[in-house]
Amino acid sequence: MNNISFPKTKPWRSEKHRRLVASLPCVVTGRHGPSQCGHVNFNKGMGTKACDSLTFPISPDAHREHDQGGNLTREERWRREWEYVDATRALLIQRNQWSVEAETAYKIAIQPLARVVHADREAA
Among 29, 76, 81, 105, which is 20 to 30 Å from 42 by CA? Predict the structure, then answer.
């Protein structure tokens, strides 16, 4: 796999949004609380978290396993992160809890992940 790099933009930060995400059931197990606000691991480094719009609720055990990679390839983990963020966004939109600021940040922050996860669409 090629080493892909994307320009960094200042990520959106919102403690209110992170708390809201953490209040949701875990995207991996479906269980209610306690959840943590997990960030995608794509395109980050040196202790820098991804944008808060690219978050999902995840139980502490599932969060540790996800961050360690488990038996997943990097590409599979990125695909799952896409699905987790998408499900979280959809649920918050349905509940009318997805803010304009979250959507604005999301439209920018999701682009690099979308290019990798959906590379087959761009090639077509």
Answer: 29
